[in-house]
Amino acid sequence: MSGHASNLAGCSLATVLKVAPLDALENRILLCHALKLTRVQLITQSERRLDIAEADALATLFERRLHGEPIAYIVGAREFYGLDFRVTPDVLIPRPDTELLVELALERLPSNGRLLDMGTGSGAIAVAIAHTRPDAGVAALDASAAALEVARGNALANGTRVDFMLSDWYQALDTTASFDVIASNPPYIVEGDAHLSQGDLRFEPVDALTDHADGLSDLRSIISGASAHLRAGGWLLMEHGYDQAAAVRALLSGAGFADVQSWRDLAGIERVTGGRLA
Fold first, then answer.
1. Mean pLDDT across the chain
2. If phi over 0 gives left and psi between -120 and 50 gives alpha, with beta otherwise, what is residue 68?
3. Does the pTM of the predicted model rise above 0.85?
4. pLDDT (tens digit per residue) in 156-167
5. 59: which residues sit within 8 A by CB, 6+ positions away?
6. In the predicted structure, residue 263 carries a pLDDT above the cut 90
7. Sequence ranges of the binding site for substrate
8. Could you report how far apart the first and last alpha carbons of the chain are, in Å?
9. What DSSP line would sit under the chain, residue for residue?
10. Which of 44, 190, 247, 248 could form a disulfide with 273 if both were Cys (CB 3.0 to 4.6 A apart)?
């Protein structure tokens, strides 16, 4: 049994929250996860004391987090757009910034319209849109079979219907497939970027983070193939890096898209860029 477990055994839950090694929010999340308690139960059972087995399990979770493993992978879940998503190391962890892409897509998706989510990962974008707009036909693709398995489970758990397919961008799409909106959060980090070896990114699937090139190659592929699968007046919306908005606008304009613009996230960063098929 680890030293942390020895220190925690016999402590009340209230005491554990005070002496545990992480910040208050992470302590609470891991304690709830280890003991399978809700936040309310954690409060109402604050005087409950940990036995040795519980202390040992909790100490293991603390050690994993202290070594940098993301909370979402430790507990296997992350909230996105008000929904709960299962996450594994096979998929990126959904981030609040991406909710901007969901909002923009929803604003441009007509009644009974069709939307394609490219590089769906955990299915966060597709499932959030399908949940909000059950009238819409939502399809999603990914080149990773493991990611699609996670995404299918998330669609089922959230009571949504999404048509998933294994595809390297547009490769597996029928030539007649057309959509009112194409949305994507593709790999856009430049190869060798220092961030890939820092923080949570160290644990996330590298192929979902970087294109192993200049950060724009997947964005170029999505833009170049979009016109064949967008209906007239349809929108292409893409999340990208903090310094890529101007480059993505240029790519869209060069491909003949109209109303090309970028939108800022809550931090004021140009996070999503899109255009309308003229």
1. 95
2. left
3. yes
4. 999 999 999 999
5. 1, 2, 4, 5, 8
6. yes
7. 185-188
8. 65
9. --HHHHHHTT-BHHHHHHHSSS-HHHHHHHHHHHHT--HHHHHHTTT-B--HHHHHHHHHHHHHHHTT--HHHHHTEEEETTEEEE--TTSPPP-GGGHHHHHHHHHH--TT-EEEEES-TTTHHHHHHHHH-TTSEEEEEES-HHHHHHHHHHHHHTT---EEEE-STTTTS-TT--EEEEEE----BPTT-GGGGSGGGGGS-GGGTB-SSSS-HHHHHHHHHHTTTEEEEEEEEEE--TT-HHHHHHHHHHTTEEEEEEEE-TTS-EEEEEEEE-
10. 248
* 19 Cβ contact list (under 8 Å, min separation 6): 7, 8, 11
Tokens 């080149």, residue located: 143
What ranges do the domains of the chain cover?
A: 3-67, 90-277
- Other CB atoms within a 10 A radius of the CB of residue 166 amount to 13
Gyration radius from the chain CA atoms? 21
Annotated binding site: 119-123, 142, 169, 185-188
| pLDDT above 80 (res 4) | no
Handedness of CA 263, 265, 270, 274 (dihedral sign): negative
Tokens found for residue 63: 């050690």
Residue 75 confidence (pLDDT) above 50: yes
C-alpha 218/C-alpha 196 separation (Å) is 17
Nearest to 179 by CA among 128, 219, 237: 237
Which CATH superfamily does the domain covering 90-277 fall into? Vaccinia Virus protein VP39 (3.40.50.150)
| Residue in the structure block whose two tokens are 């800022």 | 264
Give the residue numbers of the binding site for S-adenosyl-L-methionine: 119-123, 142, 169, 185
